[in-house]
Amino acid sequence: MYFDSLAGFIDMEGHGLYVWLAYGVFLMVILWNLAVPVIERSQVLKSVRRHWRRVQLQNEQSGAPSGDD
User: Fold this and answer.
1) What span, in angstroms and rounded, lies between the C-alpha atoms of 34 and 29?
2) What is the pLDDT of residues 19-45, one digit of tens each?
3) What is the pTM of this model?
């Protein structure tokens, strides 16, 4: 395709709204698919850290060995 101006490129002969909307949705889906695993991973790591802190505190309070030897 050949466009005479930037406005013609953005308009895409009357189909610009659909084309750019499709690109926007595609970009949002890709970003979502990249962001969600990172967010979930950090939440899982925080949960595991909290759990192990809780286990260590319980072991210290009961006098049981921590298993770090």
Assistant:
1) 9
2) 999 999 999 999 999 999 999 999 999
3) 0.63
15: three-class secondary structure by DSSP: coil
| CA distance readout (Å), 41 to 33, 45, 53, 65 | 13, 6, 18, 30
In angstroms and rounded to an integer, the radius of gyration of the C-alpha atoms of the chain is: 27
Q: Are 60 and 66 in contact (CB under 8 A)?
A: yes
- CA 23, 27, 28 angle in degrees (round to 5)? 120
- DSSP SS3 for 59: helix
**Residue ranges in the chain assigned as alpha helix (H):** 6-11, 16-62
